[in-house]
Amino acid sequence: MEKPNKDLFEKIVKIAQNRGFVFNASSIYGGLRSSYDYGPLGALLKENISQLWWKALKTSEVKIYPVDTAIIQSTDVWKASGHLSEFSDPMVECKNCNSRFRSDSNFENVCCDQQELTDPKNFNLMFETNIGPVVNENSQVFLRPETAQGIFVNFENVLRTMRAKLPFGIANIGKSFRNEITPGQFIFRTREFEQMEIEFFCIEEDSEEWMDYWTNKRLNWYKGLGLKEEYLRLRPHEPDELAHYAKSTVDIEYLYPWGWGELEGIADRGNYDLKAHQEKSGKDLTYFDSKDNTKHLPSVIEPAGGLTRTLFAVLLSTYEEEKLENGDIRTLFKMNFEIAPIQIAILPLSKKDDLINICNEIDTILSSQYRTEIDVTQSIGKRYRRQDEIGTPNCITVDFETLDDRCVTIRNRDTMKQERIQISKLVEYFQN
Ligand code: GAP
Predict the structure, then answer these.
(1) Sign of CA dihedral 148, 154, 158, 164
(2) How many other CB atoms are there within 10 angstroms of residue 61's CB atom?
(3) What is the pTM of this model?
(4) Which residues contact 405 (CB under 8 A, 6 or more apart)?
(5) Is the CB–ligand 1 distance for residue 388 below 6 Å?
(6) 210 C-alpha vs ligand 1 centroid, how far in Å?
(7) Is the CB of 308 inside a 6 Å radius of any atom of ligand 1?
């Protein structure tokens, strides 16, 4: 297997920043450590990945209901879920320079010459804030550390309003916040990130089968996204790693430049969460099974993935360098047509009005179905290089002959092959 190369990390971070995928947050003020903004191409890529996630759920053979829940929930939610008491990492602090580290980190904790670390103590990862103008105990709230609890607290609402029947899932996507002690590795571990989570409710006897179903389905989804298969693996949790409520957990991992890292965790959580919310809220969260007139709390399989982490894996996995005949190195992202931020770039050979007008005409034809961009700046060679480096699968070049024959050149990103076709055939060409 190809070894992941450390330089790759630096290259991707540089391209991501230079080409408009990811910027350091607050960069004009010197940046905020481990906080990132997604630029025009990164925002598009993120949106495209999230749309594919929804598409896979909407077209799946099992029923999945979407929800979009609040970031700030009642503090009771986090009390019941255990986040308030248990969502913490072990932290050590240097008595000399006050640097803080996770004591269970895989990386060496080095801060200063006179490093002297305290014993580990637990540090709660939830961000705290207040609602309303009066700051007191009752106004204290937390930013959600996961999207999952928004699903559990809406289980009864969805069941009732959608007349849902087991087995079914509820899916939620959006920002989560964790005051990570040691964020890092670019957008791999940040304090503000996006999750895509599903809670799949079923009867307990079927939970193992559904665990296999979701593990395969989610792994195949990552492959379909264009992640290299040999860079993906399933890692079942050892019994001593399992959360106390989880019967089993399998991580889908990606081989990042520094080693294997989690993309998604798939856990059999039993009825732990519904039970905890039922007890705390006093609301009946059972499911009524009309087949045998019984009420019970369903079991839950939870595929919990990271959208921003997946985006990083897409950049790493689709990046390639090719040596050209003239000795130059061509860098490109071989992203799938479906997720490429720009799908078709339209390039006039010169800035002459006649050519620009034809580019606008082509853009009008294609932009209702595809993400297009008219790119006029710099030489045609440099524009091809830029489009390769932002992952654009196709470039259409409009040249002076186009004025006579109404034909354009289509260049394929991966093969660099060019073919000439009539403007009137473009729609048909891309449909095929
Ligand atoms: N509800 C279960 C849950 O939240 P998790 O393993 O803590 O499980 C799920 O998170 C996914 O969210 C992870 O597999 C990862 O992709 C992503 N994730 C978690 N913490 C993250 C962070 N600090 N930065 C970026 N992504 C993160």
Answers:
(1) positive
(2) 6
(3) 0.93
(4) 422
(5) no
(6) 21
(7) yes
